[in-house]
Amino acid sequence: MLPVKIVGTGLYVPGEPITNADLKRLSGLDFDAEKLENKIGIYSRHMAKYNDIEESTADFATKAALAAIANASVSSDEIGLFIVGTDTPEYISPATSIIVQGRIQEKETWASTFDVAASCASFTIALDNATRIMATDPTIKYAVVVGVYNMPAYLRSDDAFGHSIFADGAGAVVLGRSDSDESGYIGSQLLTDGTQFDYIGVYAGGTKMPVTKDVIQSGQQGLLSLKPLPGDRNLRLWPNVVRRLLTKYDMAIDQIDHFVFTQINRSVIVNVMAELGVSLSKTTMIMDRYGYTGSGCVPMAFHHAVVEGKVKRGDTVLFMASGAGLAVGSNLFKF
User: Fold this and answer.
1) 290: CATH
2) CA atoms of 299 and 317, how far apart (whole Å)
């Protein structure tokens, strides 16, 4: 077990909650609210653009990071590593993590910064990287890892499905050194299938397809669903990854005190927990109030689990996240 633990958590969402009825009125779009609520589990969300809030990814990430730093009761000057996990960055360049560091520390420091862009698995993979970097560099006293999502900024105005699902938000953790066996990082299991890169994504804006007038007129900007995703993908993937992760570290399913999954679909989480033979009381779901916040949803749900007393110091926690591409990340640690 690596001697690195989570010492603080925080989250941020812009503005007041927007209900499904509110969203229909604000966007002028229609969608199946009954299915959205009963199957997927989304009743409300936060979206900066419909709350008339001029904020974007770096704003969300900075405010979540500051909340986690305050929760950890550490000085921002002591942060030696900033990692932002997102596939909705503030800019293509410079990295969003650089902007976050500048806003928080407000000067040149000996901190390291970088982004992880692995779709909705970005936070879990960023957390794994941060922990391993800290374990090999004793000069880093604290690290901040943020998962953040601003996909509504990439939604086309006629995308009713996208508007109903995707929302804005960020969650963050502060990592510090652990001096006991009660807390620490056990390990991870990652999985990738790059042959699925052309299912869903934001394809315009990079070197392959710069944003031009022709691209906009042809409707190729923003979030695009090019191929239907396999309906059972997470139902198949998540239990397999969880079992491989536990086998890798010689642990049993009943040793896990709490599970946090990508908050994409309530029914999927319910079915996966049943497949694993674990009570729903051992997971936290937040899509009802926040919608789907991509790389932000795992740290946001974990923050709620801690604040609500579902996770206590010394508990063994498993994070399981997947996203387009295909990218999958999982983490196992003692809180």
Assistant:
1) 3.40.47.10
2) 12
Rounded-to-integer distance, Cα 217 and Cα 158, Å: 14
Q: What is the pLDDT of residues 153-185, one digit of tens each?
A: 999 999 999 999 999 999 999 999 998 889 999
Cis peptide before 326 (omega within 30 of 0): yes
Is residue 15 within 8 A of residue 53, CB to CB? The reply is: yes
Coil, strand, or helix at residue 40?
helix
State pLDDT tens for residues 74-122.
999 999 999 999 999 999 999 999 999 999 999 999 999 999 999 999 9
Q: What is the DSSP string of 223-238?
A: EEE-SPPPTTHHHHHH
- Asked if residue 144 and residue 35 are part of one domain, the reply reads yes
Domain range for 202 is: 184-334
- Which pTM does this prediction carry? 0.95
At 7, phi and psi to the nearest 5?
-110, -5
Mark which of 133, 162, 177 sits at the end of a domain. 177
